[in-house]
Amino acid sequence: MAQIVGIGANVHDTIYRLDTYPQQDTKQKAASITECGGGPCTTGLVAAAKLGAVCAYMGNVSDDAIGEFLVKDLTAYGVDVSMTNRVPGTTGFRSCIWLADDSASRTCVFHRGNVPGTTLGEKEITAIQNAKILMVDGNDLGAAVSAATRARESGTTVLYDAGGLYPGVERLLQLTDVLIPSEEFACKHTGKATPEEAAMELFQKYRPQVVVITRGKEGGVLYDGKQLTAYPAFPVEAVDTNGSGDVFHGAFAFALTKGWDYLRCCIFSSAVSALKCTQVGARESVPNYDAVLAFLSSRGVNI
């Protein structure tokens, strides 16, 4: 059975690498074009699988070339897709991403398509009940809430990658054990000016086990209801930051399966995310476990 199961966005990405961000109404040559899988939940599952966890995705995809690509991509990285359904006559979730080399910036334009939400069957419910961790990202919200409810009943930890301010996310926040929002989400959702204030507000309002706010190259903030702790980012020569947050969440889920404390999980996940940024592609650039330990050791960090 899978240690980590996930419900959320499964996206087909087309990445254009450019020398600089394009000006409007011009033509520009791309240095390269990469077709790959994306989405917070599924990329997180890939990261956890590459690090060594047994992972499975449950959800719907389109029954066309896009859906076929997404299923094959997850399979190639060792994620179980036996609970992934192909829905005829639908258009899949896809995005176009521009990476500007001079600024290491990322610009994303996406279309959600019309794939219907997931319905949990007996197989999915059993997988959730037997897993250590359920990963959700706020997409496919109805299924995520149903799954989180089942997870809570069975003692499965709910890890929420909170990046999008979708309508109704409060329902999911109330069922979350490990809440990992971006700084933007945390501050906008709470109305607080700093990530520290936002972390405390989210903890007081929703009562998860822990709040971990990600701040990109600034590292992040951990709050367990007793103490605020900053965790570091690891400077690298960044080539592609797309998906770095998704990878952080997947690495955190993997670290939880090791039984580590939350600060150790943060430091490990920050290192995984940094290494991912040194190559193009949110999934193919995720390092293996030994590479992460070597990276941390080279910086004088032993976990």
Describe this entry's structure for a reader.
- The strands form two sheets. A nine-stranded mixed sheet has the order 5-4-1-8-9-10-11-12-13, with helices on both faces. Strands 3-2-6-7 form a four-stranded mixed sheet.
- It has one domain (4-22, 31-298): Ribokinase (UDP-N-acetylmuramoyl-L-alanine:D-glutamate ligase), CATH 3.40.1190.20.
- Helix 3 (122-130) packs across helix 4 and helix 9 (262-276) crosses helix 10.
- With 303 residues, it is an alpha/beta fold.
- A hairpin with a 5-residue loop joins strand 11 and strand 12.
- The protein starts with a strand and ends in a 5-residue tail after the last helix.
- It has helices at residues 40-51, 65-76, 122-130, 141-154, 169-173, 183-190, 195-206, 244-257, 262-276, 289-298; strands at 4-7, 11-18, 32-38, 55-62, 80-87, 94-100, 105-111, 133-136, 157-162, 178-181, 210-214, 220-223, 228-231.
- The model has no long low-confidence stretch (mean pLDDT 95).
- It has ten helices and 13 strands.
Would you kindly provide a brief summary of this structure?
The protein has about 300 residues and is α/β, with parallel strands linked by helices. Helix content is about 35%, strand content about 25%.
